Amino acid sequence: METAEKISITTKTLASGNCQVKFFVEDESKPQYGYLLVTEPKPVGEIIEEIKQRMERRRSTALNMNPFSLIPSATEDHNFYLFSA
Q1: Which of 6, 45, 57, 77 could be disulfide-bonded to 26 (CB atoms 3.0-4.6 Å)?
Q2: Domain boundaries in the chain?
Q3: What pLDDT score does 72 carry?
Q4: How do residues 3-52 score in pLDDT, each as one tens digit?
Q5: Residue 65 neighbours by CB under 8 Å, 6+ apart
Q6: Which residues pair with 10 in a beta bridge?
Q7: Residues 3-10: contacts with CB within 8 Å, 24+ apart?
Q8: Beta bridge partners of 23
Q9: Is there a contact between 35 and 22 (Cβ–Cβ < 8 Å)?
Q10: Is the pLDDT of residue 1 over 50?
Q11: What is the C-alpha separation between 11 and 57, in angstroms, rounded?
């Protein structure tokens, strides 16, 4: 499912050498923001695609919350945090 949401990002290099990306999802019905930790410098387009993929993975995991499902649940993603604005 392709969404028409707009994602804007700001980056910050941490003392560890990793890059913290703060992003805003500008969606009128459900604005969100979050953080992504990347271990190597990446172009803005790649970062936005990675954010979209992780958001989609989180949406699909939320839809598969059936405790009787044979599909294994996704592991926690400690490099990606998403909040409602």
Answers
A1: 6
A2: 1-40+78-85
A3: 55
A4: 557 999 999 999 999 999 999 999 888 899 999 999 988 899 999 999 99
A5: none
A6: 22
A7: 3/27, 7/48, 7/51, 7/52, 9/44, 9/47, 9/48, 9/51
A8: 9, 34
A9: yes
A10: no
A11: 22
